[in-house]
Model the fold of this input.
Amino acid sequence: MTLGGARQQLDLDVLGRQMYACIEELYPLCRSITGDGVRETLRRIGRHFPLTLHEVPTGVPVFDWTVPNEWNIRDAWVKSGSGERVVDFRKSNLHVVSYSVPVRARMALAELKERLHSLPESPDRIPYRTSYYRETWGFCLTQRQLDALPDAAYEVCIDSSLVPGSLSYGECYLPGETADEVLVSCHICHPSLANDNLAGVAVATFLGEILSRVSLRCSYRLLFIPGTIGSLTWLSRNEANLHRIKAGLVLTGLGDPGTPTYKKSRRGNAAIDRAATHVLKSHAGARSVEFSPYGYDERQYCSPGFDLPVGCLMRTPHGQYPEYHTSGDNLDFVRPASLADSLAVALDIFHVLEDDKAYLSTNPKGEPQLGRRGLYRAMGGLSDVGAHEMAMLWVLNLSDGRHRLLEIAERSGYPFDVVQRMARMLMEHGLLHEIGSAVSNG
Ligand code: ZN
Done:
């Protein structure tokens, strides 16, 4: 079955609930850019389709960066004089600054406060903080927790390790008829955050599961990687094959209640940019925005030395919702319906990439007589032409071998699906034949 065919048979309500369950399962794991939380996450994703786990040792240079030490954490707390855990890693892994070095100390509140991070403007939320490339330690807590700490001595413990190990990432290659590759990339380095991280992971996981069951024209490569250092590591190990990538999507923030946003690749007019913009046009509230050198791993894929045709699919952009990078980005914030809608949008975009073919009219001199073939309404003289007939005329007119279906859809204003259906019908009547099908580079 083709991707377009499979897409029509999907039960999106069921898939939305399954993706939500996937997020619930992965939510408690303490992920970071390296460590056992990432490995366990990858192991669980690998139950859905064949995922290869790669390990790259600490110290390996990747462009201007180096694979860092591996971080693992078992427990962490701040205890009051009575031995009560006033900040407790077991309650939320956001309580510890990610990549904190191990510490065991006693200190007064004033000294401890220099290590505490809170959000005065959101007093009930724990902030998410990291310190990957500077060795330090710290705790994050709600402003209310902080305000409630009496001026006394505290015992602090971070039972972590930051030592040479490796960086882990997951990769799945699904071969299609052609070597043209579509890259799907998501970051797996955030701990208990549901939208920024896990929603993208869940959508990518179910995309992988669906793509692995259908026959594909393009080949697909799914990457589950730690942000920045993971994409840089993958790029440095695969530089010789990057020319195969004809399109790509970074998936992130796909479960919040907002509407879809597509951020274009640096090229701005690549096949993926045109396909995504076209799909989102018929989606209420959705929008395409221009490239900017900030955001997620598209920053690396679209750096000038690579300039890959990779865009970013999300819902509300990062930083534009108050729950972003706080404990407010939790299981209540993501919705099965948003996840299902995001999956549908991604599949619709890939469907366009899969089926964007050029056709040649077998009857280019004048219009073929459609009525005789039962393709045109019997009654003449009506003032408006039906939508399907109009789409059919567009397909016939532009099928000179130089225009593909997406271009016909863009120019005619009809959805890709309708244009494709018309092309198929005209083929069945011998009025078109298919030529060329490689992914265009815009
Ligand atoms: Zn983030």
